[in-house]
Design goal:
Domain Beta-lactamase-related: 18-372
Protein name: Beta-lactamase/transpeptidase-like protein
Strand content: 15-25%
Number of helices: 9
Family: Belongs to the beta-lactamase family.
Order of helices and strands: HEEEHEEHHHHHEHEEEEH
Structural class: alpha+beta
Pfam families: Beta-lactamase
Largest sheet: 6 strands, antiparallel
Helix content: 10-25%
Distance between the termini: 23 Å
Radius of gyration: 21 Å
């Protein structure tokens, strides 16, 4: 049972968190900050600080819970939600506005062990070079599956096509994701060309390696799987952005989550003083699953209230969920507790979503500005 926000100790905690955040915001290196602590029954804490447009803070509207931030790599959680194996027309229970209601997600069944080549027969990747003296395996013998893409176990590199890191090992300039590595966001054909021309970091399912490339390919594969499972493929979404909008955002009532800045939503988009151009960029369908999404504090609260992870509080072996990173943090009694989180950062945008599954509360931090450490605020 989630605690009531009216409990004295909860109210005391809320005051402490508010004092901490207010003091931190006064340092002046954060343009806009939206923070919530939520349980399955509602928000215990929800606050917004600063202006929506960092370069014109004196005249900008104030940030609110429906203001939209680029959540960058936190978008992977929603890619995994789109592809989480389930049967079509499964009923999902969601608690919202203190009431239970049922929603029907129009999701087909995506077998997690399907090879990606089932949906993209033209996909190739290099298995040579890992053990030059061993027999070279074929793509059929070492398939990359949807499950491997969703769990960073595919062996695909982090960001393909990669930039050229000219000054390695003196610095990393020219590395990282598109734009940061001086390359444009890839279209679908360039994604497949990059996969065909580069060695895997390890054989599929051999070793975990964080991969934006893998999540991008997952999004494209889910779109193709959805089309093939339909009795009328021509009526199905033709982009990943349209697919997740139909299957996830609309059924859950997430009306502040999109992939592009448009005339219709421009008044809601938070723009940082550092890297304001990121707000207007089109990440294209090959990057949207990994990093292209906008979301609001209100929408992330809906996601946190779904309790998208379960864990028995006292042990270290029962875990399930999406693309979480897991850390250990001490509670007030000095005991280590697992915290599941996803972090995202790109120039002026910094995001963190975290869940403490043992007691079923979540934290959302959406932030723009020069201060980068959303994880510390969590």
């Amino acid at each position: 049972m989630s605690p009531s926000p009216n409990l004295p100790r909860i109210q005391s905690g809320v005051r402490q968190v508010e004092q901490y955040l207010s003091k931190r915001f006064e340092n002046g290196d954060i343009d806009s900050l939206s923070v919530a602590v939520a349980t399955s029954t509602g928000s215990l804490f929800e606050r917004n600080y600063g202006a929506m447009r960092g370069n014109e803070s004196a005249y900008s509207p104030l940030t609110h819970s429906h203001s939209m931030y680029r959540i960058v790599f936190v978008a992977k959680l929603f890619s995994a939600l789109e592809g989480h194996p389930r049967t079509e027309r499964k009923i999902v229970m969601v608690r919202a506005h203190s009431l239970f209601f049922e929603i029907s997600l129009r999701l087909h069944y995506y077998p997690r062990d399907d090879p990606v080549t089932k949906y993209f027969p033209e996909l190739t990747y290099r298995l040579d070079g890992l053990k030059p003296d061993s027999r070279l395996r074929t793509v059929e013998e070492a398939p990359i599956t949807l499950f491997q893409l969703a769990s960073h176990m595919s062996g695909l590199g982090r960001d393909w096509p990669p930039g050229t890191v000219h000054n390695w090992p003196r610095d990393m300039q020219g590395g990282g994701p598109p734009q940061t590595n001086a390359l444009p966001f890839p279209d679908n054909p360039s994604l497949f060309r990059a996969t065909a021309g580069r060695h895997l970091t390890s054989p599929p399912f051999a070793h975990p390696a964080y991969s934006n490339m893998g999540t991008a390919l997952l999004g494209l594969a889910l779109m193709e799987a959805n089309r093939r499972a339909s009795s009328d493929p021509s009526s199905e979404p033709s982009t990943y952005a349209e697919l997740v909008q139909r299957d996830v955002f609309e059924p859950l009532g997430m009306n502040g989550s999109y992939f592009l800045a448009t005339e219709e939503n421009n008044h809601l988009i938070v723009i940082p003083s550092l890297g304001p151009e990121v707000a207007d960029q089109d990440f294209l369908d090959a990057t949207n699953p990994a990093a292209g999404q906008f979301s609001s504090l209100a929408d992330t609260i809906i996601f946190l209230r779904m309790r998208p992870v379960h864990d028995f509080e006292e042990d270290d072996w029962t875990s399930m969920g999406f693309m979480w990173e897991i850390i250990k943090a001490q509670d007030s009694n000095g005991r280590l507790r697992k915290i599941y989180w996803r972090l995202g950062a790109m120039l002026g945008y910094h995001t963190a979503l975290a869940i403490h599954p043992g007691t079923s509360y979540g934290v959302s931090v959406l932030m723009v500005g020069h201060y980068p450490d959303a994880a510390k605020l969590v």
